[in-house]
Amino acid sequence: MTLNTSVLKDTWRRANDENGGTRSLGLAFYKRLFEKYPGVKPLFSTPPEDQHKKLVASIGSIVAAVENQDRLVPYLQAMAIRHLRYKTENEHYAAVAENLVAVLGEHLSAEGDWTDEMKETWQSALKIVCDVMIEAASNPEKYAGSIEGAGYQKDGFRKGDPRPWELDEAVKP
User: How far, in Å, are 56, 95, 112, 164 from residue 126 at the CA level?
Assistant: First the structure.
């Protein structure tokens, strides 16, 4: 299946507008994540009421940059390297992806349609995201040069930037 970027963008816009917006989506994401995957809860020191803002900003950044791989790939690599600090393990990526698709489907179907095409598009996109991030997290030294060229430090953060989870072209809620 070819990745349908317009489906990603349209569904993300809908997530911003429907069923309480991305705040509702983000809080539902963490509620379900901690219920279904309780082993990940200790990885989070920020309460879901605050953490969901980072999640939503990250997803918005990914969706906005989906057609700009030169920006998206180093962003994902840097995010993966940052997540090493939080003790993220490779299997956590699949849990987050599964959880996001499930919650996004519930969120969008509350006021409209959630089609098989939407689900498959998000699953495909998140598989790519997971693959890029797992590769970078498994080999951070291999990607140090490319992320530095994109403005990130070797630890995945941007110097003096308190919001490294956002890209300039993020689709804001």
Answer: 14, 11, 22, 20
Give me the residue label for tokens 């509620």: 31
* Gyration radius (Cα) of the chain, Å: 15
* Cα(173)–Cα(22) distance, integer angstroms: 6
pLDDT, tens digit, for every residue of 46-86?
898 899 999 999 999 999 999 999 999 999 999 999 999 99
Distance CA 3, CA 124 (A): 7
Give the span between the Cα atoms of 100 and 96, in whole angstroms.
Answer: 6
Q: Of 94, 91, 63, which Cα lies nearest the Cα of 76? A: 63
Q: What is the pLDDT of residues 87-124, one digit of tens each?
A: 999 999 999 999 999 999 999 998 889 999 999 999 99
Instruction: Give residues with Cβ within 8 angstroms of 94, minimum separation 6.
Output: 130
Task: pLDDT band for 146, please (50, 70, 90 cuts).
Answer: very high
Eight-state DSSP code of residue 154: T
Measured CA to CA in angstroms, residue 68 lies from 71, 97, 114 at distances of 6, 21, 26
Measure CA of the first residue to CA of the last residue in the chain; give whole Å. 28
